[in-house]
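Troubleshooting log. The previous structure file for this entry was overwritten by mistake, so regenerating from the original sequence record. Sequence copied from the archived sheet and checked twice against the printout by T.R.
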Amino acid sequence: MNPGDIAKEIAGGKTALGIEFGSTRIKAVLIGEDHAPIASGSHDWENRFENGIWTYHLEDVWTGLQDAYRKLSDEVYARYNVRLQTVGAIGFSAMMHGYLPFDKDGNLLAQFRTWRNTMTGQAATELTELLNFNIPQRWSIAHLLQAVLNKEAHVPDIAFLTTLEGYVHWKLTGQKVLGVGEASGMFPIDSKTNNYDERALELAGRRLEAENVPWKLRDILPKVLVAGDAAGVLTAEGAKLLDPSGQVQAGIPLCPPEGDAGTGMVATNTVAERTGNVSAGTSVFAMIVLENGLSKVYPGVIDMVTTPSGRPVAMVHSNNCTTDLNAG
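Regenerated output below.
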């Protein structure tokens, strides 16, 4: 397609914008109707080890997002002589799992605990036995129960628990939602209903209530959506967060925010049953889309997540990959 036609696509909003928060880079890519890339922008960042916790500061989330978007927008103007004011749709993805608890006023209650933290062994073991379902240390429910068991001061004030892309999506749209693939890294999913597993929700909820928490688990988790569901639109406040220059317009529809496992499945076209892929990044993991759930639990070996449409996926994961390779 020639530059003039691409410029018309951009001006007409016949594009889609994908933004991913990886462990070392924030990437933004704009594609056209033929799914070919039109422009991109990126921002390098890195997690910090503070107070014994691997974390990112929330201000770095917004600084990085705005920088990646600005670079993409500048590239659009340089290449096609048109200002990026609207797109057909926006989607966010990010590193999965972790712990981002907020109070009723939207204030973060504790340091963002990323998937790299291995500080929830007690909770992960207890939940795996209770639910008869492998709960890795990096999952949000393990972080939540561990914080409760540790009697952390912020626990009584929790009103909402989410992940990184769930947080960004919430601030840009006002919607407290997650794609089912990312939700499956917070809590077990029932692929028949494409929602949190009701039996597991009841058991884990009772366990938490036994510790006298003043909230119910089902009330603090994000709503689960599948690929294709409407997940809100960019609000006026969200538009300013994404693009402080004021060029981008409110009203752009957003898709459910997903995890990096789901984006890897889509990028490699391995969302159908009996397909699989290997992702080698800061961590490394292999995934196979199953016809049915596993017949038994494999603690510490096989994790169960889902595709963005809710199909069950078996995953084998290791925390370290390219970080160690780069250091060598």
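The radius of gyration is 20 Å. Archived copy saved in two places this time.
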